[in-house]
Amino acid sequence: MSPLMKRIPREIRNGWSKYIVIFLLLVGTISLCSGFFVADESMLKAYNDSFDKYNIEDGHFMTKNPLNVAQRKNISKHVTIYDLSYVERTLSSSKIRIFKQRHTINKVDVLEGRLARKEGEIAIDRLYAKNNHLSIGNYLDNKWKIVGFVALSDYSALFENNSDSMFDAIKFGVGVVNEKTFNQLTRSQMKYCYAWKYNKKIKDEKKAADDLLKVINEETSLDDYVPRYQNQAITFTGSDMGSDRAMVMMLLYIMIIIMAFVFVVMISDTIMNEANVIGTLRATGYTIKELIFHYMSAPMIVTLISCLVGNILGYTYFKTLMASLYYNSYSLTSYKTIWSISALVETTVVPLILMIVIHYVALRRKLSLSVLKFIKRDLSKSKRKHAVYLPRHIPFFTRFRMRIIFQNIGSYIVIFVGILFANLLLLFALALPDMIHNYQDVMKSQMIADYQYILKVPSSIQSEDKLKSMISLLSYQREVETDQEAEKFTLYSLKSKEKDAKEEDVMVYGIHKKSRYVNIDHHGDGVYISSSYHEKYGYDKGDTIILHEPYEKKTYKLKVQGIYNYPGSVCVFMDQEKLNEDILKTGSQYFSGYFSDKPITDIKKENIATIIDFDTITKISRQLDASMGKMMSVVQVISLVMFMVIIYLLSKVIIEKNGQSISIIKILGYSNREAAKLYILATSLVVLLSIIVSIPLEYYLLKPVFIAMMKTEMSGWIPFDINKIIYIKMFIYGVLTYTVVAIMEYRKIQRVSMSEALKNVE
């Protein structure tokens, strides 16, 4: 065995405390990321497979009255239809939609307990039960005994209405009962819903859905019509799953790069201490490549073992932990873990390559000095022959500390970068819950009206037959008339068309000229965008926004006339007549909703599509809080641990590098406390300055990341407004964490003996 190979175990053994800390940090990072990648791929595969496994519908439609035999027969010539009628019950603080047990279409996955067998039993959605603290054996509404937790394959995201901007697994849930119990439910509250499956494979979903719509319209009046590709309760989960992968991957590689530079600083210190040995080895014939391989070996061994252990933990414990994050947000069916080659590459191969490249470049540069320089212990590449001049009027101890900082500037730069990244994670973890709660408080005073009633508009109003369209409009207006205190408005949904952003619904409000609720200038050709639209996409007065029809190529270019202060949603406000005539082509008298500050009770429920109130507006924040609240606590702990580890490792290197100097000042009569004032205080000043400088920088670093996350991951907007108390918390957490490190380093200084000064005497 080569003499250099024999030194590797000894190097790891002598620096065991540093390598253990790095090992634990790498294992923690890789296991979390590996667990996430494995869970993400496994659950995405289970979601994609569920369409066949549970025979998920191709779409559904709703009617006011049940279909008769003739209607079913005529529609069934084109598709197979299934009865999915349901009853909704309002409970004390939520609403539940009750179905009859499914056996052929949109099948149910039993996750815990069992399906209802007896009269008065119910199996409810697992996530709804969790969010409302319901257990098996409890009674729902004092009527139905909960006997199981299930996942309905057509409700992976609990959208109460397909037009909602966000699902709500707290205030809305679904459940199934047996046929006998279902038949006893109040018939007057029955919602007649029918799912369909195409009889043959189709190529163009939209064309097939449009053709079927014409067929059904000839048979009956529709209350709702939702093809699968438009059904958010089915498609939202699939579009969201997998989108977090890029962000997690970026965090992993940033962490690996930071740890690689920590390794480089440690190796540079080792090379400095062993300069004579390296010079002798070079003089006796060892090549630079052999020495590079030797000094890379220990970090690579630690990294490789960390990757292997991290992946083992990722596939076992952390896979379940990461899967629970999805289960906290979505009503998913059960899944099986799959072997992920891409996860192995991303958490093992890529980190190893990054480590090898960074180490090789740094070591090649360091070891390319001449043999004579190593023997003389002169490892500086600069031609500067004198130390940096420090004015004599500066106190001696201050000058001494400044010399320590200058001598270890590389280590302190890595400390600053590490603190910057750790504080970025900490700010995100502290700020997001605060922003969510602040958004809920702001919306209490910023709502357009206490209630927005969105009406169900018959599709026949937009018929090409003008007479039929006019008759339908008059009939519709008569059915939805209410008291004069409620204000009419028009609401139309378009899609955003933004680069590098998720396509989202943009609600276009047509506002009456004498509106009491929305104050905009009705003169001019432009539109007003909400403050949320402005903050999310950066549009200002004079800019042009582009919106398009859902599932069509038709687009609208709208000039921004102003910004309306409304943080509730990404929406547009314009004159009602212009919206009706220029976009909808329905005539100036058309409307589709009411603003009201009190509940409207004289419109039949079947004519109301949805009601937008405070609970509806705050769905996005409530759901984020429920699904990410616990995760933010974990991120806080991770960021503080990373903060501590980086400072501990590099301050330890600095003290070890100056071990001989510390020994000398002890011989000269300085106490441990005085030595600590020189060396630990220098690091303390750098850490304190890094915390102070990094905190204001974090705002400007996090803001574009947050906006990009909201653009690519979510519909809607939460204002990026960070409370100043968050920055104070960050400073306190940073100081307290460093205090622990400083105590550990003080003990290190205490262990430096006076005999250290007798070593390496030249």
Structure description:
The chain has 762 residues and is an alpha+beta fold. It has three domains: 3-43 and 242-381 and 388-439 and 621-758, no CATH class; 65-220, no CATH class; 451-612, no CATH class. The protein is 53% helix and 16% strand. Strands 1, 2, 3, 4, 5, 6, 7, 8, 9, 10 and 11 form an eleven-stranded mixed sheet that branches. The radius of gyration is 33 Å and the shape is elongated. The two termini are 32 Å apart. Residues 250-357, 637-742 form the ABC3 transporter permease C-terminal domain. It comes from Kandleria vitulina. Its main location: membrane. Pfam families: FtsX.
Features:
single chain; 762 residues; alpha+beta; 3 domains; eleven-stranded mixed beta sheet; six-stranded mixed beta barrel
Q: What portion of the residues fall into strands of 2 or more residues?
A: 15-25%
Range of helix content? 40-55%
Morphology call: elongated
- Unreliable segments (pLDDT under 50, ≥5 consecutive)? none
Mean pLDDT across every amino acid position: 85
Annotation field: number of helices: 22
The overall strand count is: 20
Q: How many strands, which pairing sense, and closed or not: the largest β-sheet?
A: 11 strands, mixed
Distance between the termini: 32 Å
Count of folded domains = 3
Going by helix content, strand content and strand pairing, the class is alpha+beta
Gyration radius over CA:
33 Å
Can you describe this structure in just a few lines?
By secondary structure, the chain is of the alpha+beta class. It is built from 22 helices and 20 strands.
